[in-house]
Amino acid sequence: MQSASGVFTAEITGNLRFTAKSRLDFPVVGDWVKTTRFEKNHSIIYSLFPRTSILKKRTTDKFGENQMIAANIDCAFITQSFGRDTNLNRMERYPAICYNANSKPVIILTKTVMGEPARVEELIESLKKRIKNVIVIPFNAKTPEGSEILFK
126: which residues sit within 8 A by CB, 6+ positions away? Predict the structure, then answer.
């Protein structure tokens, strides 16, 4: 847990654990919580503030269960490298998770110098057709491409 006073280990109270109806009731990364200081570097979480969004995905081991990823995310940056393993179906799943959580997805397509500019542009256009209202930023760490947008 991180606060204005520093970084602490934290645990939830027994009451919070006992009243939880599902995994959704436990704190995750991004949650705002109410705590009390228990020891010098340890806190007790006794309640959660209401969430504005929750990123979650279905678990593979238990039918109907959700795995919590993060809470209160306004904008999610999804990175995918350009190359042999570029997969449109996989790239389509992550923005769907964001839209379900009321978070704005931004796809950052890295290592774009590995492909022909026409192929990169074709992939970007395909993504924009398949995923409505998504921003796709081609980016390469070795050139200024994309940095003017990302590092404003």
Answer: 88
